[in-house]
Design brief:
The structure holds 2 protein chains of 2 kinds.
Chain A lengths: L1 H19 L29 E5 L4 E4 L2 H10 L7 E7 L7 E3 L3 E5 L11 E5 L3 H8 L2 E4 H9 L3
Antiparallel strand pairs in A: 1-2, 1-3, 3-4, 5-6, 5-7
Helix pairs in contact in A: 2-4
Chain B lengths: L1 H21 L1 E6 L8 H7 E9 L2 E3 L4 E3 L3 E5 L3 E4 L6 E3 L5 E3 L2 E3 L10 E6 L5 E3 L2 E3 L3 E6 L2 E6 L2 E3 L12 E4 L2 E11 L5 E4 L2 E10 L4 E6 L5 E3 L2 E3 L4 E8 L2 E3 L2 E5 L5 E9 L2 E3 L2 E5 L1 E6 L5 E3 L2 E3 L3 E5 L4 E6 L2 E3 L3 E4 L6 E5 L2 E2 L22 H8 L10 H12 L20
Parallel strand pairs in B: 1-2, 2-5, 3-6, 4-7, 5-8, 6-9, 7-10, 8-11, 9-12, 10-13, 11-14, 12-15, 13-16, 14-17, 15-17, 16-18, 17-19, 18-20, 19-21, 19-22, 20-23, 21-24, 22-25, 23-26, 24-27, 25-28, 26-29, 27-30, 28-31, 29-32, 30-33, 31-34, 32-35, 33-36, 34-37
Classes of the chains: A alpha+beta, B mainly beta.
């Protein structure tokens, strides 16, 4: 009686382990509890939250796309270890999209926690956000380039 | 005909002149009339005059204050917010006193405040109540203003989208004193502000009780900061005076009594750090003076990262902390001298009040925990005690320079 039970438990455990070891990806951010891994401020504003995922699946969280960019180019994680970078779709707080698929509006009308004032949306939505708020559009490569050489 | 008309005309002009051209020095707003709204009163009042608002509930579109005026609310005068600001002040020399402002929807597209002072000088808001607003009091590009004795209560315990209670942006020479702020994102937030004086009670806010960003030459004294989500943060700022404040009961993995990042040439004097996960955290901070503070019953009393340089700790009292000082490297260039440490086990044979053997405040175990946090589970283990004792006798791994060679035998504070 104990043998099959044990076997079933073992199978369940293996299944759980396999799930836990899935491919690296973003995870939801616990607002008000998680600190930004670059500036150490507590993340409270969902509109600007961002993540960096390493090849081993470790997730770093940020309160501002600017913090993510600075961390990505000069943080403790080398470029070869980075799996993916994620930013929040400004229009849909809680939805993380790949940074390379996003377009960033730098605007004076909305202020981000670390004053990068970068709002991320999917590429297709960039023009309409720019029309609504004003400002300049940048892609992820340009944001990274700025982070490498701050103005 | 003309002969009759002319006196009428003159009399009419005489009657009309005071209200149209110069207005009234005192206008009363009363739900029973004749002036029923503050908006209407503002069209009637003379510049520099006063508007008194009688008890009542007022729901008006955005009220724009574009003349110098004093607006005084009598008890029970309540203005209700909605999908817009309640008051927008764009004139110099405006005083708001005794008003109650209630409610206001949060917004993703603007930092909507109950009261916005926009590019003005000499503004005052005092003795008012702001309840359940998104942002409460917002000063943008203003100078010479005072925010005093207001009670600001947000609803942030249920809402992650709460704004800041008192928010200053690009402003100079502002006094924020005697306010009680609670239940917002940050109690008091200052960004690009110079010469601010801050003295308040800021408790139970979602993130920081007080938050300085890129703000220089400011001082905050005798404030009480308790149970804020992450304590108080002072970042990218120089020449600050932080004196006589209490930082207490900030517990959590990202919580600090006081978080300092990139702070230069500042003074941290006679504060009390009590029961925080980390009492004082310093990163990238240089030439700061930390004197006469009490660190009591914190997890980590002081956490100084190796990139902090030339900070001097003297005359502080360290009591009942799990760890007195931690750092992330064996290289450290901050100075500790003449502090009281209750973990000190040395002696004072010459009875000059100063211990005869140096004290090493960084436990070996704290370095291990800094590099591998889960090791904390071994905090009370015999093995760790042994490790620490061995390291105390013969320091190998802990920062050799991080030593107090004049530890006090009695607590100075």
């Amino acid at each position: 009686m104990t043998r099959p039970l044990l076997r079933r438990h073992a199978a369940a455990l293996l299944g759980a382990a396999a799930l836990a070891c899935g491919s690296p990806g973003p995870v939801p951010i616990a607002l008000g509890e998680t600190a930004c891994d670059h500036c150490h401020m507590t993340i409270v504003d969902q509109r600007f939250a961002a993540e960096l995922v390493t090849r081993t699946g470790k997730v770093y969280a940020f309160d501002d796309a600017g913090c993510l960019a600075t961390f990505a180019v000069s943080g403790p994680v080398g470029p070869e270890q980075i799996h993916s970078a994620w930013v929040t779709d400004f229009r849909l707080p809680g939805t993380l999209i790949p940074a390379q698929d996003a377009i960033f509006l730098r605007t004076d009308s909305i202020r981000t926690p670390m004053s990068s004032n970068l709002l991320a949306v999917p590429r297709a939505a960039g023009d309409s956000l720019q029309a609504a708020l004003g400002g300049a559009l940048l892609d992820w490569a340009q944001v990274l380039a700025e982070a490498r050489e701050p103005a | 005909m003309m002969r009759f008309l002319r006196p009428c005309l003159v009399a009419g002009l005489l009657l009309a002149a005071p209200t149209v051209a110069t207005g009234q020095a005192l206008v009363v707003v009363d739900p029973a009339g004749p002036v029923r709204t503050l908006t209407e009163a503002l069209t009637r009042v003379t510049p520099g005059g006063q508007i008194t608002v009688k008890a009542g509930t007022y729901t008006e579109p955005v009220i724009r204050v574009a003349v110098p005026v004093t607006i005084v609310g009598e008890p029970g005068a309540v203005f209700i917010g909605g999908e817009h600001q309640i008051l927008v002040v764009s004139a110099d020399d405006v005083t708001l006193r005794g008003l109650t402002l209630r409610g206001g929807a949060s917004s993703f597209m603007e930092d909507r405040a109950a009261v916005l002072f926009d590019s003005v000088a000499n503004c005052v808001i005092e003795d008012s109540r702001l309840e359940g607003t998104f942002f409460a009091i917002y000063l943008s590009r203003s100078r010479g203003c005072r925010v005093s004795r207001n009670v600001v209560r947000g609803a942030a315990e249920v809402e992650m989208t709460a704004g800041n209670a008192i928010h200053l942006f690009h402003s100079t020479d502002v006094t924020i004193d005697g306010n009680r702020v609670t239940g917002h994102r940050d109690g008091i937030y200052l960004e690009f502000v110079e010469h601010a004086r801050v003295n308040n009670e800021s408790t139970d806010n979602l993130r920081y009780g007080l938050h300085f960003m890129f703000s220089h030459e400011c001082e905050y004294r005798d404030n009480r900061f308790e149970r804020n989500g992450a304590g108080v943060a002072v970042m990218y700022t120089r020449n600050m005076t932080m004196e006589g404040n209490t930082f207490a009961d900030n517990w959590g993995p990202a919580s600090y009594g006081l978080l300092l990042k990139e702070i230069r040439d500042s003074r941290i004097l006679r504060n009390t750090f009590r029961q925080n996960s980390v009492g004082l955290y310093m990163e990238g901070s240089a030439r700061n003076e930390v004197t006469g503070n009490v660190f009591q019953a914190n997890g980590w009393a002081v956490r100084v990262l190796a990139n902090a340089e030339g900070n001097v700790f003297t005359g502080n009292s360290f009591r009942q902390n799990s760890f007195d000082v931690t750092t992330n490297s064996s290289r450290n260039v901050s100075t500790f001298r003449g502090n009281y440490w209750d973990h000190y086990e040395g002696y004072d044979l010459d009875r000059d009040g100063v211990g005869d053997v140096p004290y090493h405040p960084v436990r070996l175990f704290s370095l291990l925990v800094a590099q591998h946090e889960p090791a904390l589970i071994l905090l009370r283990s015999f093995f760790v005690e042994l490790l620490d004792a061995a390291e105390r006798v013969m320091p190998v791994l802990t920062p050799a320079m991080l030593v107090d060679d004049r530890p006090l035998m009695e607590s100075p504070a």
